[in-house]
Amino acid sequence: MRKSSKSFRLAFRLCSLVVAVGLLCGLCGCAGKVEPFLKLKVGAPVVYPESTDMSAHYFSSENLTEIDTSGLITLLFDENSSSVGVRVNGNSNSSKLWSALPEYNDGEAISDEAEIISLEIIHDSSRYILNSQDSCVSAGTVWHGNTKEGFTVNYYFSDMPSLFADIDVAASDEAYTQAAGDNILYKVTVCYSLRDGCLYASLDWVNLGNKEDVLVSIGFLEHFGASSSAQQGDFLLVPDGSGAIIDTACDEALEPVSIAVYGNDIGGNSVLDAVVPAFGVRSGNDAFAAIIEQGDAVAVINAAKARNSSTFNRVGAIFRITPSQLDGDDELYSECVYSDTIEICYRFLSGADATYSGLAAACREQFIRYYTLSSTGLLSAEAMPVVVNVIGQAKKDGIFGFNKKLTTYSQAQDILNRIKSKGINNVYLRYSGALSGGLDAENVRNAKLLSSLGGAEDFSALNDYAAGLNFNVFVDVSLLSGANLGKKAIGNLVESKTAYETESIFTKTGFAEELPRLYYTELSGLEKTVLSALEKFTDFDSTGFCVTDVGERLYTDFEGNVNRQTAASIIKEKISPLATQNIVMVQKGNFYALKNADIICDIPMSCKHVKSEGYVSVPFVQLILHGIVEFSGSPVNASSNSKAEFLRCIEYGAIPSFVLTNNSLDGSEEYNKIFSTDNWLAFIYNCYNQSSEVFADLRDSRITDHFRVAEGVYCTEFESTTKVYVNYTNEPVTVGGITVEALNFFRVN
After folding, report:
1. Residue 141's closest CA among 103, 84, 201, 189?
2. Greatest extent of the chain over all pairs of C-alpha atoms, in Å
3. CA-CA distances (angstroms) from residue 210 to 45, 159, 180, 189?
4. What are the CA-CA distances from residue 528 to residues 448, 486, 649 (Å)?
């Protein structure tokens, strides 16, 4: 009895100590919430302008004014709707007119849905949804003319447009401000210019009215190329995951989709996300690609089909100017506003180029031209690499969850030795969970090599061994997040520390339920963090880093007053020293982080939206990147269908990736089936061998076309000279006299 009582007292004191330490650490590390600029009750009144002239919502092709010409395209202006159109002259005396507003077709119901610009404004505890056609065009508060920047249109948005009835549209801003008083008044300036056969549309704004107003979002050219009908082959191209096409001629119902470029901000709730800030439309034999040049990090791309809640088939972007978070019944708004220019580039294609492959090629050229992507391509090689991701340490689930040693540095070396002995001569070894915290990673500034995995000597030996085999080692590092940041964790509008939960390979495969919980740190410290990473790994002869966070997550730093667009620019600039003497792997591959990336891991290999006849996943991102930067998707062996996952690598030109551990997380047979090196060595060799046979000489090639041949059969074309057919079906398929065996592929030169 006394023994039991003593044990109880000891356990009680231990728990008390843990709680006390936790409270102390919490107090020491408390960053504090950031005070919002404005609060608005959920369900606040919403005010819309009255539609007085429905014709202002449509583009009229009669009495157009020709503004400018560049190559085969001509910029036109419709004064009735204050909107523009672009006439693209084809190669066979044909032309296509693309307009910023839809054209009205006789017999169809008239709609007030379309506009050039929409503004969401908080004014006097109400939410105002204003649009350029009702708030400005119908009210007569629009000015247009040629300026040194291009053809310019000024829109004056107000909740009380009658206040400006006696003011000349060309009057000074001061005259408008004086007339506005405490009412809403935003001057929005749109500039159109033609350069190199492309249309550039830019937008700037200034608040000339009530300075307490908050501009929440701007919709810009959301109906460019919109139409109420479609013919066979027409589609909307959206950047959902790897990319998707929405078949506008298909009768299948589809709810409107919203895709957050570079994922959600803190407090965001979009289900779909994009790594690339681009979209497109095909209509008949013509198409256009739209690339968001400025404002991409605050953009959300919306698409809808005419058969559902929208009158038109359309895809376009809105821009979240003021970041916000929901706190119970309150919407909280920050002062970290985006206030710079918004710009979209439109590139036009016709004929055989009017495909999603052609749109990808147009985007690639634009990204190279403006230095988002490198102009230096890859080099061909004797063998394609494989990515082997080993896990060092991970935490088991449970209230007293403990770290489990899965692969030591010397065991990782043994895995490389066994891989090499199989005849695999090109390996990228990604080492996750190798530093403090394991998979619940510390920020690299605080992280150290784990002594439990062998320490510095064994880690150096691993790198030396890999270098002797001409293999590359990439150690996972977190630059902008960490599991235990203390006072370095930034607060937001709702919480004193900004945390996010991210899936690990074990939660994805069902061997863990608890998501690793990490915290964001201040963006101002990124430069020092990068230098810290370089300094720490200099002595170990490590060939590279796998940066796990900067290419996957983008956030507003509320404490540092840094909006997402500025954050993207900081990341792009500050991570460049990593690539000076090292090879850089970036996780997921948001495009702002790719300029200095050599390899992308975990790139999206499918769309997130449910696939169907009318919503088809396509390799839009891979079509842009192949030949410029290497990429791999999710680990093949972690898929429920490893054969199909490998075939997807062949179809998309991706490096096969595998995840292995030397020891088991839970000791189960099911775990060993997925992660044991013994179970996968032969399969890894086969994948390496087959992908090398197909792609070794195509590593530096651009993908020039991709299309479905038949149900479950796809063709990828490289540099218009080589085709690779992939058959996902259980039966052989004959294509043009060539038989592609079941669950196999075939290359044709």
Report:
1. 189
2. 101
3. 18, 11, 8, 19
4. 16, 17, 37
Distance from C-alpha of 674 to C-alpha of 669, rounded to nearest angstrom: 9
Name the E strands within 222-358: 235-238, 244-247, 257-261, 272-274, 278-283, 286-294, 299-304, 314-320, 324-327, 330-333, 342-350
Q: How far is CA 260 from CA 302, 375, 504, 555, 558, in A?
A: 9, 27, 22, 12, 19
Characterize the bridge pairing of strands 583-587 and 544-547: parallel
What are the phi and psi torsion angles at 663 (to 5°)? -115, 165
Mark 438-455 as b/e (b = at least 16 C-beta within 10 Å): bbbbbbbbbbebbeebbe
At 6, list the tokens.
């003593």
Q: Are the beta carbons of 477 and 431 closer than 8 angstroms? A: no
Asked if 648 and 378 count as a contact pair (C-beta separation under 8 A), the reply is no
Pairing of strands 126-131, 46-47: parallel
Residue of 711, 737, 731, 732 lying closest to 723 (CA atoms): 737
3-class state of residue 485 by DSSP: coil
For 573, the 3-state DSSP assignment is helix
For 387-405, letters b (16+ CB in 10 Å) and e give: bbbbbbbbbeeeeeeebbb
Three-state DSSP class for 13? helix
Tokens of 612: 């169907």
Dump strand ranges (E) for 385-465: 386-391, 393-395, 403-405, 427-432
How many residues does the structure list for the chain?
A: 749
More confident residue, 11 or 316: 316
- DSSP symbols for 330-368: EEEE-S----S-EEEEEEEEEGGG-SHHHHHHHHHHHHH
**Identity of the amino acid at 193:** S
pLDDT tens digits along 421-459: 999 999 999 999 999 999 999 999 999 999 999 989 999
Q: Label residues 707-725 b or e (16+ Cβ within 10 Å = b).
A: eebeeebbbbbbeeebbbb
pLDDT digits (tens, 9 = 90+) for 136-161: 999 999 999 999 889 999 999 999 99
| Helix residue ranges per DSSP H, 615-676 | 620-625, 642-652, 669-675
Residue 62 phi, psi dihedral angles, 5° rounding: -95, 145
CA distance 28 to 567: 27
Measured CA to CA, the distance from residue 230 to residue 246 in angstroms comes to 12
Please give the C-alpha separations between residue 337 and each of 36, 274, 447, 743, in angstroms, as whole numbers.
12, 22, 33, 51
- What angle do helix axes 455-468 and 409-421 make, rounded to 10 degrees? 20
- What does the alpha-carbon distance between residue 704 and residue 613 come to, in Å, rounded to a whole number? 24
Q: Does residue 136 contact residue 62 with C-beta atoms inside 8 Å?
A: no
In the beta sheet, which residues pair with residue 118? 131, 219
pLDDT in tens, 29-59: 445 789 999 999 999 999 999 878 999 999 9
**Residue 87 DSSP one-character state:** E
Q: Which residues contact 677 (CB under 8 A, 6 or more apart)?
A: 415, 418, 660, 662
CB distance 337 to 215 below 8 Å: yes
- Tokens standing for residue 556: 């507003």
Closest CA to 572 of 558, 557, 545, 554: 554
Rg of the Cα atoms in the chain? 28
Tokens representing residue 282 in the block: 């095909």
Tell me which DSSP letter residue 101 carries.
S
Tokens at 82, concatenated = 């204050």
* Structure-token match 């007053």, residue found: 561
